[in-house]
Design goal:
With 421 residues, this protein is mainly α. It contains 18 helices and no strands. The model is unreliable at 1-5 and 206-218 (pLDDT under 50).
């Protein structure tokens, strides 16, 4: 399926493969993890804060593994890395089914994080940045939207399976299915660039006309990691990554929050399905807005919509319809991790050392998960309510708007200093 043999550029087939791989890893595995918290906590008598602490352990492992993940992509066969990663991540789900103590979740949080970090954090942005020299925003939007579609299909099924078959069977079913789908997608779609086989990035060389080396040079402008780390833009972006992840981490507690409002576990699963549909809708809208009004304005608008969703959670959560509305609006924030965050990195620092800069600022994602996920759990465990966490989220959304403004002022300083070239 070489590009010269098809009217479809091979970059789009790479995107198809990524949609399946990341959609399964994130939409089916990561997002369904929240549905298991309440039934596991109730059956084994584990406090919600103590159980959700395994997610923090995963975040710590992510923090340690991130600096190496980007380097592995360039050094080793990407297909081998994907297969190993999904076996580690999905295999941990299978292992959870045999656990009777919270220590089991703590132990298997390690392979869960190593596999999940590579696939859900690094793989998509790095490969899209490599394969798409134009329309990368559209590609990121499609990738996030597809993850939402897969999640929307899987979430209700997992919720119903947990109710009918139990959480142990459901862990095995989800884990084994994920391994099968990801391995097939990897073998069929993922390939390395090859000049001999005509596999070039989309938007360069013979696809766009002109000299390929000139096109590549034009698209590889930006700031080095060393110079980026000396700028206010870098630390503002790091703050943004930290806060948007802390905000999005509340998604793991939404099913429990819904149950505390008097709804059933099955309804919580259906609600998460609506949320994933919201991710599809939000991802496509964000992708379009990113091209039309710019990354900066799109980010600010997303934070404002996030504020609206939190107000609904706080003051109108007794209505099932309003819960659906809040979840859809909240998707504009969570989708930002997959679309806005990579786009902000490229917009602020360019493509010269994109992989290294993105991997570094992504440390904010891991650090936030260490703190936020158990914090929400302990707030609920000690107060019996998530209200304190929701008010904190409102403050973080406001701070994120300020961080984005500061980041773009920092970019202007880099340009004036002649460091953006």
């Amino acid at each position: 399926m070489e590009r010269k043999q098809s009217n479809i550029h091979y970059a789009w087939w790479i995107l198809v493969g990524l949609c399946i791989i990341i959609g399964v890893s994130k939409g089916a595995l990561n997002n369904s993890a929240s549905l298991f918290l309440t039934p596991v906590s109730n059956e084994l008598g584990i406090g919600m804060g103590n159980l959700s602490l395994y997610l923090s352990i995963s975040a710590i492992v992510t923090l340690v593994f991130l600096p190496f993940a980007g380097k592995l992509v360039a050094k080793y066969d990407i297909r081998m890395l994907i297969i190993i990663a999904i076996i580690l991540q999905a295999g941990s789900f299978v292992a959870f089914s045999f656990m009777n103590s919270v220590w089991g979740w703590y132990i298997f949080a390690l392979p869960l994080a190593v596999g999940g970090t590579f696939i859900t954090v690094i793989l998509g942005p790095v490969l899209i940045n490599q394969w798409f020299k134009k329309r990368s925003g559209l590609a990121l939007g499609i990738l996030a939207a597809t993850g939402g579609v897969i999640g929307a299909i899987v979430q209700p099924i997992v919720g119903k399976t947990i109710v009918s078959e139990g959480w142990r069977f459901s862990y095995v079913a989800v884990g084994v299915s994920a391994i099968i789908f990801v391995i097939i997608a990897t073998v069929v779609f993922i390939k390395k660039m090859s000049k001999e086989k005509g596999l070039y990035p989309y938007g360069t060389g013979d696809t766009e006309g002109g000299d390929q080396s000139a096109n590549n040079a034009a698209t590889d402008k930006g700031v080095t990691l060393a110079n980026a780390k000396k700028s206010s833009a870098f630390y503002a972006l790091l703050t943004f990554f930290f806060l948007i992840t802390a905000i999005a981490s509340f998604m793991m507690h939404i099913p429990t929050y819904i149950v505390t409002k008097g709804f059933s576990q099955e309804f919580a699963g259906s609600a998460m399905g609506v949320y994933m549909l919201g991710v599809v809708f939000a991802s496509l809208i964000i992708g379009v807005l990113n091209d039309k009004i710019g990354t900066k304005n799109t980010t600010i608008l997303s934070m404002i919509l996030g504020m609206a969703s939190i107000f609904i959670f706080l003051y109108a959560a007794s209505s099932s319809v309003m819960i659906f509305v809040a979840l859809i609006l909240f998707a504009f924030v969570t989708s930002g991790i997959g679309i806005i965050a990579p786009s902000l990195t490229s917009s602020l620092f360019g493509n010269k050392e994109y992989g290294q800069i993105y991997s570094t600022v992504s440390l904010g994602l891991a650090i936030a998960s260490i703190v936020a996920i158990p914090a929400y759990g302990y707030i609920f465990q000690f107060t019996g309510s998530y209200s304190g966490g929701l008010y904190t989220i409102l403050a973080m959304l406001a701070i994120n708007i300020v961080a984005v403004i500061i980041a773009y002022k920092g970019k202007e300083k880099l340009e004036k200093a002649g460091l953006w070239n």
